[in-house]
Amino acid sequence: xxxxIKVPDIGDFKNVEIIEVLxxxxxxxxxxxxxxxxxxxxxxxxxxxxxxxxxxxxxxxVGDKVSKGSLIATLSNGDSSKIKDNKSILPETEKxxxxxxxxxxxxxxxxxxxxxxxxxxxxxxxxxxxxxxYSFEQNSIGDVDPQETIEWIESLNSVVERDGPKRANxxxxxxxxxxxxxxxxxxxxxxxxxxxxxxxxxxxxxxxDQVLENKIRSLIRWNAACMVVRANKKLPELGGHxxxxxxxxxxxxxGFNHFWKAQNEKNLGDLIYFQGHCAPGIYARSFLExxxxxxxxxxxxxxxxxxxxxxxxxxxxxxxxxxxPTVSMGLGPIMAIYQAxxxxxxxxxxxxxxxxxxxxVFLGDGEMDEPESTGAISLASRERLDNLVFVINCNLQRLxxxxxxxGKIIQEMEGLFRGAGWxxxxxxxxxxxxxxxxxxxxxLLMKRMEECVDGEYQAFKAxxxxxxxxxxxxxxxxLRDLVSNxxxxxxxxLNRGGHDPHKVYAAYHAAQNHKGAxxxxxxxxxxxxxxxxxxxxxxxxxxxxxxxxxxxxxxxxRFNIPITDKxxxxxxxxxxxxxxxxxxxxxxxxxQLGGFIPTRKTKTKALKTPATEIFESSYLDSGDRELSTxxxxxxxxxxxxxxKEYSSRLVPIIPDEARTFGMEGFFQKIGIYAxxxxxxxxxxxxxxxxxxxxxxxxxxxxxxxxxxxxxSWIAAGxxxxxxxxxxxxxxxxxxxxGFQRIGDxxxxxxxxxxxxxxxxxxxxxxxxxxEGLQHQDGHSLVMxxxxxxxxxxxxxxxxxxxxxxxxxxxxxxxxxxxxxYYITTLNENYKHPAMPKGAKKEDILKGMYLFKEINNKGxxxxxxxxxxxxxxxxxKAAEILSSDFGIDSDIWSVTSFNELRKDAIxxxxxxxxxxxxxxxxxxxxxxxxxxxxxxxxxxxxxxTLSEGIRNYxxxxxxxxxxxxxxxxxxxxxxxxFFEVNKEFIVYSTLSTLVKEQKIASKVATDAMKKYNIDPxxxxxxxx
Length: 1023
Prior knowledge:
- By secondary structure, the protein is α/β, with parallel strands linked by helices.
- The protein contains 38 helices and 26 strands.
- A hairpin with a 4-residue loop joins strand 4 (34-39) and strand 5.
- Helix 4 (210-234) crosses helix 6 and helix 32 (871-885) packs across helix 37.
- The chain is globular and about 105 Å long.
């Protein structure tokens, strides 16, 4: 059967140019194979074949312009059964109908109630307390009928006993909904009573040896404290933190001993985001495991000689140990959320196996005030990230005082996370409270627990058992009687949940097995636990770096450390014999869980760089075609996606701007990742670039969240280490909303040794034109220069971009260098020349090459440097200088002022350290050897960028840039305003030549009048 292939619906575009024909007569093609590429002034997109068949004739060629319905080719032996009938039901609609039918089958025809399918989290049948007088006091609502209240509570209790908590929750939900329908505007409360979420009867018991684990935990506490105190006794300026780990030791110990799987040959392992201030405790555990030496502990925070330990988790400083930089508060939580989502992404795309791995994230309650800490928690529940566990150490204190002195941080966090759809587990009270709660038949103890605020709870643990008896239990006679047979020491031993390994184990077990939603564990602890009067639960504990000898005696005695007074005074570390039961136990536990953690993998299977042909097409002259460098990049990516080895590894990341960047063609070609697929028929389903979501989709369409998109990029860029697979993340964004918005994330990416591409699209102060002050970027390249392993470029032409992108793929993913690339691209369309014959790839990569020489035997000669958007202005200025003023020039394309500067300062340093040897020349000096000045540099960025090479330019050096706030206007007017247009470049050159006495001053003053340059105009930074 002969069939015709026609141009499908391409939206509002007409007469679109064909830039590639990907088929030839005789080819056997399959449905969805790309057959040609179309390019508009904004984007390029592949056209897929609508069915299978053999190409019998091709009706178009490169350069033709087509619209919807234009004939492309004919097929012989075509399979028309796969052609979509416009009148038939669309596949998306069919899916919706099928899902609806499945639901209808589950409806009970008698009661019309959908049968419950969710399994209860806790199957154990227990006896529930029947408090009839316990309530949360609400002054505005009085109990007008106490008897009726009791009857309602008794009815609810009977439902729980007979049918379980799920049924009770179902009925309560129905009642609340009915109340709203009836007009009752009830306040919504996501908080539960201030007690443990898991009742004692439902706790899963730890299989560990609690005596041994307690000994090990005590040794870790001692060595962690000694590490910090020793360092500050020797050098007080070093600092350090004791109190945070003191409060969290049990939270870590239970995970290390029973839950956290290590990466090995059989399993990719769990990912643990350690709270930064807890680093001493993690080192102390590794010391017992034999992974860290005594000398390293002695050199805590003394890293310069290479034998110390970093202050916090820093993969750059300890590349075989730490996985995630977490101490910049707020970054850990959001990066972990997107890490868990990226794990699901890899699994759903069948790139890694689902091994029931978890991402565990340890946070402080004070850290939760950072916007990034909670900014993405709704994404975690929306994506059903049941591979994610937050453990928030609620020690109630931040650096200066209480986190919520007048409230309860645990209750606040519960409401926030429960409202966002998380599974919330509160671990508030330790086992010593169980008997008291059991004896509390009226609920008065729970009421008192509810009444107290965190400021009071802090004081209770700072002032002793007698104080607790008087101020906590003493408020009500019944509670005073409840503890009448307990001594003050007994009351003091009433522990908090986060210090109880039994309670923590039960919470971790529940989190480990929860399905369908992320889990947050809110563990109540004491900051400075075990530090005595110098640090336990007092406001200054975070800053406490030193403990006197009496404090250390107290610490030793409290935790039963088997050392002498002399050893205490010498602050000696303690490690049992290698054959001791403690060391054997700790190693056996890690052996059972696959190995030691933290451990960072540094290598994985490399990717061979795609064929050079993919990039060489960009070396050619674009002819009459005008296109932006952003479109050039999209074209390169489209070709890479045809490479079978490489295509699956690309991770395009877009913060809701795909159409701005001309990437909408990716929607159909590789799909947008969505963990549930696509449950709806998109409004543009008939168009070639319709919005297609897919469970195995490749594009990460993040929405309007630069922080989230950057976190995804970091997850993908460290995949080689965390998931044993090399991925190539390419994050495109408005350049102004890059480094300025996410600078701290970019720094963390460098620390984490991330590999990937950041693309600052619509870059430059004057290129984005009408968007104005907030959108126009004139400094992202300056910010990029602050990150040591960030390689940054500002290319102008297609061949420059192709050379740079190919080099990035080779360095990062074939040679596996721990660098990442920041490349600016433009949204300005213009013609692109072919790569000059004398231009070398290595020179483009070094940061500068000779683009063109204008030699008309003029009066004098100048060196003109340009980059990015302004290079074209420089080229035009050179032509004017030659034709109107008889001045010759060499035109240099500076692809990277930052790379030039890096080379120069490295060579300068080498010469400084080798005074007895012949000085080496910088690359800049080599370029300008035998070239006469002056040197004029113009960019679309602030002058700081081009000023970075001033010391290495051999002559008068004048820089032009876009210092000041941006504003809305045309590109032409903006370049005139910021004084980087061709006219101002010409005038600046003439003025400089006047100062060097190479031309008459009248030439410059006449040019000033000719080009309407106002000498009285204020500098743009003041306008």
